[in-house]
Amino acid sequence: MHTAEYKIKSVMLGHAVGDALGVPVEFTPRTVLDRTPVTDMMGYGTYNMPAGCWSDDTSMALAALDSLKAGKVDWGQIMGNFAQWVHAGRYTPTGVLFDIGGICRDAIRRFEAYPAAPLQCGPTDEYSNGNGSLMRIHPFSLYAYFCGTRDTALIHDASALTHGHLRSRIACGIYTFVLWALLDSPTKAAVQTGLAQAYGHYKTYDENRTFLRLYRDIGQIPCLAEDGTVSVDRSALRSDGYVVSTLEAAVWCLLTTDSFEACVLKAVNLGEDTDTTAAVAGGLAGALYGLSAIPADWRSQLKESTSIESLCAQAAAAWTKA
Ligand SMILES: [Mg+2]
């Protein structure tokens, strides 16, 4: 049985490695990656950053973890940490912000104008369902898991800091059910268990139908599917910045591969929003295969990995204190 610290590092570093693998080819079309696929950690490309540089996905996750590591939730402090990332380059691999989504940027501005209402910063309209809360939800999922409060309301609020529409909140909730099931039992069957729990939990919401393809055709959960094999092929899968695309693609990559490395490379090579798809897939793959399965060469190239590991260790110590 692995320790809390090991599990937290598995998820946080799995996510960061996926992010860093995708950064150099973010926005690259699938057709281009089909000809020249990513096979290893690379530098430069889209943002001209050296190899191992992770982006906003990991920055926002670290900003959240830096607050949550105290063992309590302080929404204002978390939004304040996001603002420090934007204005001071804190929680970045090189001290400079190079990637930020429009919805997140606007939510952080809203917080600075109305700091008393952090949970009202994320827009609630249907067109604000980018993957910007899903890409940074894992520290909240980990906190809820280890602090004994497996509470989806906390996850929904965490999404609403930047993405308040129910679809984004449920996407973060589904991811969290899958992650919790993987932390309980690191097997592929647990992915299906987590999806089935999410399906049951959100059954009364009309919005749950948005995720039917994930539950039934990708997840093959027993109450909806018959034959148990993933029935969505790669050409039917999108890998853009829409939250539903990212969640579907991440779970699909997890279920159709058999190693950490294969999962995150498959996610990157779907193209378009490569860093976020691979980051979300990488967090789940970290939970499934464990820290030791992340290639040592990738971990050693990851920028600021010592600081990430230190934050994880501090969180583990605080969260598991009797
Ligand atoms: Mg990014």
Compact overview of the structure:
This protein is mainly α and 322 residues long. The protein has helices at residues 4-22, 30-35, 56-68, 75-88, 102-113, 138-146, 152-160, 166-184, 188-201, 212-218, 243-255, 260-268, 274-289, 296-301, 305-319. The protein has one domain (4-319): ADP-ribosylation/Crystallin J1 (ADP-ribosylglycohydrolase fold, Orthogonal Bundle).
**Structural class estimated from helices and strands:** mainly alpha
Low-pLDDT sequence parts = none
User: What is the CATH architecture term?
Assistant: Orthogonal Bundle
CATH topology: ADP-ribosylglycohydrolase fold
**Fraction of residues in H or I helices:** 55-70%
Write down the secondary-structure element order.
HHHHHHHHHHHHHHH
Rg computed from alpha carbons, rounded to a whole number of angstroms: 18 Å
The total of helices stands at 15
Average pLDDT value? Answer: 96
Main beta sheet: none
Morphology: globular
Beta-sheet strand percentage?
A: under 5%
Instruction: Name the bound molecules.
Output: magnesium ion
What would CATH call the class? Mainly Alpha
Q: Could you tell me how far the N terminus lies from the C terminus, measured between alpha carbons in angstroms?
A: 19 Å
CATH level-4 homologous superfamily? ADP-ribosylation/Crystallin J1
What count of structural domains?
1
Number of strands: 0
